[in-house]
Specification:
Length: 350
């Protein structure tokens, strides 16, 4: 399974073929082997995110879920944050059988990766494994020299350090996660969950990823290009009428709206409405509605029930864009890919 999936991943990224890994996983009905690296002074939250995604049994999904193992470069028991002790039953040799290697943080960005770990990561990369790092786990990949010439990211606290120490890496600041070939790297710990859900979507499709997200009580998908933080991370609705209006807009985002009509619905003057809407959501009503309509379009594209240019016209109309070109413009601007490319990658197979 590992050799087939890794070879197909390599060919996909080189542009030779375009086949979803989920097709192969279902075809061979073998589990993708995930190995997470544990270490002394383990980052507990990052490690817990990895366990939550990959280690739990999920028979309700109807797919061969991941085969999960933990390996360590330090002797057990490992000390973890919060006074927890962790037993790892495998050494670094487990990395050589992994389809996906996950690095859940690192104990100290000023402590270089041990040479034996760098050698094991190099060997796994030569063999074709995928890699996912959370937060400052990217420093292990960087120290091993695996990211030279590639795009990468990390938590904003460590961004300047990563840029200064590894000038050959194309560091992307202020994003949730970055995917470059077989490497995925997330920013902070919570962004790691977004990245891991993206991996699930890549391996098993949107429907499975959405079920996993629902069990975690998380949004199904946040794009990697979103900012790591904003001045007001959660909407603040000080006005009950404005809160009711925004809740109503969530249900009617695809319908045509004017500022005057929305202001009247909120019992405000247009000027007051615009000011309070911006204060509550961080954006204008127009920009906010565009984001909601793109989310509607993503959901319709993921359903996979319709294909081709005609279906894009129906999706544009259903999402409130009207014209296909308007859909394409805003979709590419906010998501980073065209609607067709998004559907090809994430549509449920019917």
């Amino acid at each position: 399974m590992m050799n087939v999936l890794c070879e197909v991943t390599r060919m996909r990224h080189s542009g030779v073929i375009d086949i979803d890994r989920q097709y192969l996983a279902k075809l061979f009905m073998e589990k993708i082997r995930v190995v997470a690296l544990a270490y002394d002074r383990l980052c507990t939250f990052e490690f817990g995110c990895v366990v939550e995604i990959f280690a739990l049994d999920r028979p309700e999904l109807g797919v061969p879920w991941y085969d999960f193992q933990v390996c360590s470069l330090d002797p057990s028991p490992l000390r973890a944050a919060g006074g927890v002790l962790v037993e790892a039953h495998h050494g670094l040799e487990a990395l050589q059988d992994a389809d996906l290697i996950v690095l859940p943080g690192w104990r100290d960005t000023d402590e270089p990766a041990p040479p034996e770990l760098c050698a094991a990561l190099h060997l796994a990369h030569t063999r074709g494994a995928r890699f996912a790092s959370i937060c400052n786990g990217v420093f292990l990949l960087a120290e091993a020299g695996l990211l030279d010439g590639r795009r990468a990211t990390t938590h904003w606290r460590y961004m300047e350090r990563l840029i200064a120490r590894y000038p050959r890496i194309q560091v992307e600041p202020d994003v949730l996660y970055v995917e470059d070939g077989e490497f995925l790297m997330s920013a902070g710990s919570a962004a790691g969950l977004d990245m891991l859900l993206h991996l699930v979507r890549t391996d098993f499709g949107a429907a499975v990823a959405n079920q996993v997200a629902r069990r975690l009580v998380l949004p199904p998908h946040r794009d990697g290009g979103q900012a790591q933080f904003v001045s007001r991370p959660l909407p603040r609705y000080d006005n009950n009428k404005l809160a009711a209006l925004i809740d109503w807009l969530h249900q009617h985002a695809a319908e045509p709206h004017t500022v005057d009509a929305l202001a009247a619905r909120a019992a405000m003057s247009p000027r007051t409405f615009l000011r309070q809407f911006k204060a509550a959501t961080g954006s204008s009503p127009y920009d906010w509605l565009i984001v909601q309509r793109v989310e509607i379009a993503k959901m319709l594209l993921e359903s996979g029930s319709e294909r081709g240019e005609t279906s894009l016209g129906r999706i544009a109309a259903a999402a409130g864009f009207g014209a296909v070109e308007t859909l394409r413009h805003h979709f590419r601007r906010l998501v980073g890919v065209s609607p067709a490319a998004y559907r090809q990658r994430f549509a449920m197979q019917v």
